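Q: I have two molecules that I believe assemble together. Could you output structure tokens for the complex as a whole instead of separate predictions?
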Amino acid sequence: MTPNFHLWLIPLLPLAGAALNGLLGRNFSKRLVAFFGLLFVAASLGVVWWVAFQFWALPQAAIPHTEVLAPWIVAGNFSAHFAFYLDQLSLVMMLVVTNVGFLIHVYSVGYMWEEGGFYRYFSYLNLFMFFMLTLVLANNYLLMFIGWEGVGLASYLLIGFFFVRDSAASAGKKAFIVNRIGDFGFLIALFLLIQHFGTLDFDRVFPAISGLPVETAGAGLLTAIGLLLLAGACGKSAQIPLYVWLPDAMEGPTPVSSLIHAATMVTAGVYMVARSNVIFDHAPDALMAVAIVGVITALFAAIIGMAQNDIKKVLAYSTVSQLGYMFLACGVGAFSAGIFHLMTHAFFKGLLFLAAGSVIHALGGEQDMRHMGGLRKEIPGTFWTMTAATFAIAGIPFFSGFFSKDEILWKSLSSPYGSRVYWAIGVFTALLTSFYMFRLWFMTFFGEYRGSGSHGYEHAGHAHHTLASAKDVLAEIVVPAEFVSTVMSNMIERNGMVVSFEERGGMTILQASVPAANMARYEEWLRQHTSARGTWSERAPGKEGKAEVLVRPLAMQHEQPGHIHESPRVMLVPMVILAILAVFGGYIGVPEALGGHNRFEHFLAPVFTTASGTLPSGSSEAVPEAAARHAELIATAVSIAMAFLGLFFAWLLYYKKRDLPDRIAAALGWLYNTVRDKFYVDEIYQAVIVTPLVKGSELVLWRGVDVAGIDATADDSAETSRSLSEKFRHMQSGNIRSYAAWVAVGAAVAIAYMIWMGVR
Amino acid sequence: MVPLHYYLVLSAILFACGVTGFLIKRNIITIFMSIELMLNAVNLSFVAFAAHWQVLSGQVFVFFVMVVAAAETAVGLAIIIAVYRTRETLNVDQVNLLKL
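A: Yes, here they are, computed for all two components at once.
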């Protein structure tokens, strides 16, 4: 007998929140929007903890626990239901998603308070939680795919949250389209599963596959499925070659980058691979592909991350790199190590983004690290939390990232699927990780402050800015409804940004952030184009005359540069909690070689039993226990050394000898430029894929098939019948004698025919 | 006895004359006469066949045709007179009020 967990509440509560805020939030006050946004996620979080506590009491036989909410698709022998699947893996994922998700919701209240579209933001964020929890809880691949696509939708909506800015809208589309490529692979994999196993339910597919032989001899069905699933995972988890969308996704608000593009959604690919561990275990070639993709991505992204100057871009590439580690772990069969790193990464990378957001917030939208520096005294709360996260990701001993990364590196060496090459690249990447993270840390918090008033405006039109630049003014523009579109289009031309609309008594009140220098020109322009009368003072809108436009600076959006302020408590508290998790989160999985018990791995073991069962029996048994322990300690020592080496280099280059980086960059020349410009991958994709596709569509499909083929057929047949009619219509002249002549000719032809044919 | 095909050839020639006259003449009276010529060409073949096959129905038909032709002539001439009174012409090409 198993208790009823009411698992359906976990995803559906955030959905209710999304619906409430999305449908009615427009009329709510900001406080109410925030209240509902947090309430439903908190309720979901509560249910998850309640389930987690009950889960411990559950007998092993009752796991995995399946809960069918409602029938969905029943066609012949195939069925897929709205059903949820609770086992150790989905429990861990749920805990990560709801806990980190809730903290970031809280943080968002502070971060987004000044921004327009507050209700829209929380609606999307709750929608994301719904889809993410559906993905994690689904008991079949099809429902998982719904969640998979749904988080993609939420990601698209949130990346393009500042949709009036073209770069944000494009980044949203890019993320969506690049993900489509991977999803195509995922879908084909599902079709193959349906064709060969007739079901997509986890509890039926996996036993069926367990019975099949391991495809060691050559690639077969399972290898194909594994590789296609990997394609899907590469899209969602931003792995080579589909990683390009993630750095661009930084156009979204920073809490979104933190929640979706670091802590949760992008790890869905790792979760999916881990969930499909049975498939991958039976397809060593596919598993090797996972490892290779992971290790190359880890290295490649880390190299790019070293040369970025935008604080969020560094973190974005870092995320890609860390996801590569998780793939590497899965690829060497160490699924639990991958999930462990997924969890610690959610803590420290989520925190890194929140802290970066806090820095950006403090500096009024500045994201370029070259204009930061010396912030440790100005914003100590942010500094200390960021420090915890940086130490964690860099692999400084006894922080969470140290344990999980070390576990992965050790497994990549010791696993039967592992190799020294993986380990060597992984360790080198760890060095790079440590270096670029401490580089960020030193550039941001140490040295002297390099930002100044003059910088803010120069970069006002710069694509990376999340918040409006310091020199922007939040203006309220009251304009008759019929002029809204004119004002909007002009606004975008002049680097302004509309942040909210409101209809009031026939007038539309736009709130827009406008570069301060453009304010006067706005008034001038609006006066001309809306034929408005009246003074441009504090006069109330619409009192006299129907066309009245008012541009009123509401407040400076942010304090002057130099007036750096710490973030409000609503932002700091989630950061502190995450910092605690980032520091101590690793202790649930301390590897045995370091005197721990690796409880995390043992907890997850039942999910991956089939994995260990089919592994060529563990190397730790083959090698004497003490020797393995010894080797693991050496490997650990090496990775610790790498972490401190990275710290040392960063300290040397970005603290001690500040002129050295520029000299090195100059010495490296084109090599440095190539790295800084991200190996021109975007440009290469543009040239190799996008341009041929666009040109091909234009020349072949549009001008060739559509215009010259389809359109031409229709046009020409119309033209032919028209020109024929043009000729024949002269027969109908209205002249009786010509008609009679036609009759006579016809009769003559008929008679001639009859004579010729000999009709009697 | 004159053979049948003599009559038929004569009838065909008369009919062709009628058709030609109908098509090429512009004077409405002439056209009218051409129509009568065609009718009588047909009448000739009727009586010729009637005599040849020794049946009366052909001759009866001829009477019907004559009656109809007489009636038609009466109505037609009346119309021609009416047209001439209003249009002051007998040229059919100029009687074209209904043409665009």
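A: One point stands out. The CA atoms of residues 7 and 48 of chain B lie 6 Å apart.
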